[in-house]
Amino acid sequence: MIKVSGLTKEFLQGQEKTEVLKGIDLNIEEGEFVAIMGPSGSGKSTLLQLLGGLDVPTKGDIQINDKFLNRMKEKERTIFRRKNLGFVFQNYQLLPTLTVEENIAFPLHADGKVTNERIKMIHELIQSVGLAGLNRKRANLLSGGQQQRVAIARGLVNNPTVLLADEPTGNLDRARAEEILGLFLKFHRENKQTIVMVTHDIFAAGFADRIILFKDGVVDQVISRKDGDYAKYLANFMA
């Protein structure tokens, strides 16, 4: 599904180059739920931006479904992103004066896809994320947890190949965070949705199949649910 090879990203600060990613190699399987963790400045959010086609690497390749994202021109990358990738952000990034239904439908307007079939899908997503009856409620009147549910539905409305989530529970208390993570797990298990989630919270990361730990721009450690010490590792980390 996702293959990252020799991925390097440098930023120019004045006359100095800062290497944020240092030759990352990474594979993510179709239908896998992966959490990326690491301290601030470790490169995890930069990786997510590159996977989302929001930026291009200095060196290396990013393949999603055998398509080289980094070799596309900007317009090609925009179209690919729109058709294949879904995004969920920490700050929701909803349009406050639009309704729940209008916010979820927003990504469809770019491709002229607001058909009766798509409207039906929007209504099903609203049900799936637990917002039944709130279709016509404005986003600015929702709680934080409800807004994040709208953001998840919006991220899924294009039936994306990959759902990318950047600190999706960062603004929520533990109870609301657990609800949101339960939704990710639901779509992951029921629809085989591939999810890549950046998080600083080991509780959130514990919902994933694999945790990839970043440190100083490289992959420091990978812990898989298939490993016998997965639960022990989480318990020690949270202690």
UniProtKB/TrEMBL annotation:
InterPro entries: AAA+_ATPase, ABC_transporter-like_ATP-bd, ABC_transporter-like_CS, ABC_transpr_LolD-like, MacB-like_ATP-bd, P-loop_NTPase. Residues 2-235 form the ABC transporter domain. The keyword Transport applies. It comes from the Bacteria. This is ABC transporter ATP-binding protein. SUPFAM superfamilies: P-loop containing nucleoside triphosphate hydrolases. Belongs to the ABC transporter superfamily. It comes from Lederbergia galactosidilytica. SMART domains: AAA. Keywords: ATP-binding, Nucleotide-binding, Transport. One of its GO terms (molecular function) is transmembrane transporter activity. GO terms for cellular component: membrane protein complex; plasma membrane.
